[in-house]
Amino acid sequence: MAKLILSLDGEVLREYGIDKESLTIGRKSHNDIQIDSLAVSSEHAMITTILNDSFLEDLDSTNGTLVNGNPVKKHYLQNGDVIEVGKHTLTYVNADAVPGHKAEDFEKTMILRASPLAAAPPASKPETPQGGAETLPRPAPDEPSASVSNPAPAGPSAAVLQILTGGNAGKELELTKTLTSLGKPGVQVAVITRRPQGYFITHVLGDEFPLLNGNALDAQAKPLSDHDVIDLAGVKMEFFFK
Fold it and tell me: Mean pLDDT, the chain, as a whole number?
């Protein structure tokens, strides 16, 4: 089993086995690895592990995250990597890590913004064609830029997320990467992983768990099916295959 060795000024404080898909690192007590230091953000970083591969992602921390002395936003962890979080270090130990993966295998976090008028009744009901399916609203051309852009047309079996509510309503994200993180860092974050068996969603960060078809997720990864609806950070999105 891969593990992390927490040290301060060269003294080993504790070892943590990486025994689940997502580990969070931060100052608050709800993190899997709590580091009680003001140099560490409340939710500082997370490590997502798929089989023998682990990816580190900085969660927009105040002081940043370093690996082997270099600042990183996302990093594929290799055996012996030293993660610096404030004045503490975490040494990643995994002799079974597969070389060759890169941070590019981890899709940039899609920041979800709930609409400020979400609680108000809609001004008008979306137009409903004869087939009965609602036409989702598209954002106005002058809408402020968001963290996700419309992708190129997907292939016939590509998996896609379409945002149904909030500031990005109508936009789509093609799930081409091994890992795609979604949500609001520091509030609620989930990860969608692409595996040989299909696509899975896992809760990573936040006191409340996301909803899948109206049911709260738990700590385990859940498989995604065509037209599943995810409710995360106050934004609803639909998972489907093109």
Answer: 79
Give this prediction's pTM.
Answer: 0.61
- Tokens at 166, concatenated: 């909030």
Contact 55, 42 (CB under 8 A): no
CB 192 within 8 A of CB 180: yes
Angstrom distance (rounded) from CA 123 to CA 126 = 10
Q: What is the rounded distance in angstroms from the CA atom of residue 119 to the CA atom of residue 15? A: 45
What are the φ/ψ torsions at residue 139 (nearest 5 degrees)? -65, 150
Structure tokens at 83: 């993660």
d(CA 11, CA 37): 16
pLDDT at 115 over 70: no
CA distance 165 to 69: 40
Contact criterion met (CB below 8 Å) for 89 and 66: no
